[in-house]
Every structure is written in structure tokens, then in C-alpha cells.
Amino acid sequence: MKLKFGHQLKKHKLMKTIESIEYFYKINDKLSTSGQPTESEVKLIAEEGFEIVINARPQSEMDELFNEREIVGNLGMKYFQIETELNDPNMDELINFLELMTKFREKKVFLHCRVNRRVSGLLAIYRVIKLGWNEADALNEVKKVWEITPELQNFIEVQIDYLADE
């Protein structure tokens, strides 16, 4: 009996949950963010009922990894890739991100990049531009996940200023 119990306990300790994804942060029941999930962690995302996966990493960062688009699709979720970088934002991709977040606002969305910094910045921009938040409140939400570096602060402020003038 003890051997069986010990085996189950060991197996239980090895079981991963969605919260074990690196830099995971649950914003609410419909939106969570993280760093890059592994192939097995993508399965956890599907098991949690997420319908949409938005990857905010450029393809150049994804080339050495598994085919995330294919795995997400095979698990019945929709996959979108927003190719932008903090030091070289792509405005077309940023606008695409804002449109996706607006379109899927009522869906269960999982948003990730490499370490959850870029997506935290993107969400701050979305909150200000599309949800009408003030910038200070949006930045306070980013601080729950990341210390705001000058690079991240600049990324957020420049995009907000640009989009607010549109």
C-alpha cells in the first residue's frame, strides 16, 4: 500500500497546471497571459477552455521552437501571431492586436510572448486605447507582472500617443 501511495504522490507532484507556465498571470476568467508555453503546456491551455491563443513573438523568435500554430489548431483553438518587438514596434501588427482583442473580447483568450513583458505592454495599450483606461491605471496593471523598464515604458507611451492621435 505504501508503495502505491508514494507512487501516486510522486506522480501528483509532477503534474503540471496552467499556473505552472512560466510567468503565468490570470487577469480574469476570460484572459490570461504568460511567457512562452511549451508544447505540453499548450495542451493545458486547451484543457482550461481557452478558445484563442495570441502569440506576440516575431517569427524569428519562433523558428527554433515547435510548430505552435499547428498544435494550437489541432487542439481546436484559433491561433494568431502578432509580430512586434519592444524596441521596434510594428504599427500594423499593433493595430491588428487591438482589433483581435476587441473582436474576441467575449472569448477566452490566452496571450503570450517570450516572458510576458511584451504582452503586458500590449495590454496596457489596449486598455488605454480601446477600453478607455487612464494611462496610470494601465501601467499599474503592468507592474503586477513586470517592473517597468525604460524600454517598456517608452514602448507603451509612444504607441498610446500615436494611436490616440489617430
Describe it for me?
This protein has 166 residues and is α/β, with parallel strands linked by helices. The protein has helices spanning 2-14, 39-47, 59-62, 68-74, 91-103, 117-129, 135-143, 150-164, and strands spanning 25-28, 31-34, 52-55, 78-81, 109-112. The chain starts with a helix and ends with a helix.
Features:
5-stranded mixed β-sheet; alpha/beta; 8 helices; Protein-Tyrosine Phosphatase, Chain A; single chain; globular; about 170 residues
How do the helices and strands line up, and which of them pair or pack?
Blueprint lengths: L1 H13 L10 E4 L2 E4 L4 H9 L4 E4 L3 H4 L5 H7 L3 E4 L9 H13 L5 E4 L4 H13 L5 H9 L6 H15 L2
Parallel strand pairs: 2-5, 3-4, 3-5
Antiparallel strand pairs: 1-2
Helix pairs in contact: 5-6, 6-7, 6-8
CATH topology assignment = Protein-Tyrosine Phosphatase, Chain A
* Major sheet characteristics: 5 strands, mixed
Shape: globular
Uncertain runs are 1-13
Strands of the largest sheet, in order across it? 1-2-5-3-4
Number of strands: 5
Structure at a glance:
By secondary structure, this protein is of the alpha/beta class. 50% of the residues lie in helices and 12% in strands.
